[in-house]
Q: What sequence folds into this?
């Protein structure tokens, strides 16, 4: 089977339209249809079905799409690696994913420490939610992802290696002129009449669970598209918000935080592919452990036995 046909199929699945896929791939719609039909004949099962607004994969098509993505990503990496080796300057890029709060400080700090010791490495940082990052590690898009077990949690998947970095205590973000700014840990019942803003279901679940334990409810009246949007609502006085403690050092200057009594926590983990890990992955994990330990509150510290903060680094260029 030609990989170009697999690419056509994956593109049709992503766009949900034969005509849109044809336009993106610079093919005619009839050519795209013939490629999909030929693939279905080879596999002996229908891969696409029509619906009111276009096409979608059948159950068999969805299974094939999943494996086709992995194959196409690996093929792309193989081509790039061969070309780089042919130029005599192979340096496998390091692609790191992280949740927005961890991408704001912990991960760049850890990569800086890695580069200090290992020298020049091409790398990139892709933010996303934990479930998205987990999927991208499996498909080969990411070499390392830094994720959390906030609801709905992390799946147990033999295709990835998971390493616990520690517990992160959630805190409350407030505008700097809020009456509670500068005070010590506050009980959730003190915040029962406040307006809250949220940007994702996992954080909202932690907030509702913590409020329920205190015997109150949290009124989430405002929803933001992302973490910066949530902090903008806080800074302008529209709401307060539950945010990760690791984000405290990277906050904008018009936002402050207050600790909670018995705060909700989330576990922070790294995940890497079980097979063919990046040569620098192990060293980066150690640097991430050190970076996380340097910012988490002392009362949330969780000792990880047998972990070296600054190990000898392997050759990351191969």
A:
């Amino acid at each position: 089977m030609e990989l170009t046909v697999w690419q056509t199929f994956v593109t049709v699945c992503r766009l949900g339209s034969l005509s849109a896929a044809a336009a993106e791939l610079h093919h005619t719609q009839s050519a795209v249809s013939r490629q999909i039909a030929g693939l279905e004949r080879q596999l002996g099962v229908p891969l696409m079905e029509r619906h009111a607004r276009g096409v979608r994969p059948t159950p068999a098509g969805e299974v094939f799409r999943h494996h086709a993505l992995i194959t196409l990503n690996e093929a792309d990496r193989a081509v790039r690696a061969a070309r780089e080796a042919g130029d005599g300057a192979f340096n496998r890029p390091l692609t790191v994913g992280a949740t927005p709060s961890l991408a704001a400080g912990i991960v760049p700090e850890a990569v800086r420490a890695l580069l200090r010791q290992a020298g020049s490495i091409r790398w990139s940082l892709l933010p996303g939610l934990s479930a998205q990052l987990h999927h991208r590690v499996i498909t080969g898009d990411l070499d390392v992802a830094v994720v959390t077990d906030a609801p709905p949690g992390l799946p147990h998947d033999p295709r990835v290696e998971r390493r616990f970095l520690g517990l992160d205590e959630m805190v409350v973000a407030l505008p700097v002129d809020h009456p509670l700014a500068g005070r010590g840990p506050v009980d959730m019942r003190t915040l029962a009449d406040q307006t809250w803003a949220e940007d994702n279901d996992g954080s909202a679940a932690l907030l509702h669970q913590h409020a329920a334990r205190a015997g109150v409810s949290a009124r989430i009246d405002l929803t933001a598209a992302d973490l910066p949007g949530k902090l903008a609502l806080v800074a302008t006085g529209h709401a307060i918000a539950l945010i990760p403690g690791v984000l405290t050092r990277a906050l904008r200057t018009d936002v402050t935080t207050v600790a909670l009594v018995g705060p909700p926590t989330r576990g922070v983990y790294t995940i890497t592919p079980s097979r063919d890990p990046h040569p620098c992955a192990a060293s980066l994990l150690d640097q991430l452990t050190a970076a996380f330990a340097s910012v988490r509150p002392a009362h949330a510290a969780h000792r990880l036995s047998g972990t070296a903060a600054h190990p000898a680094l392997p050759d990351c260029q191969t």
The CA atoms of residues 258 and 277 lie 40 Å apart.
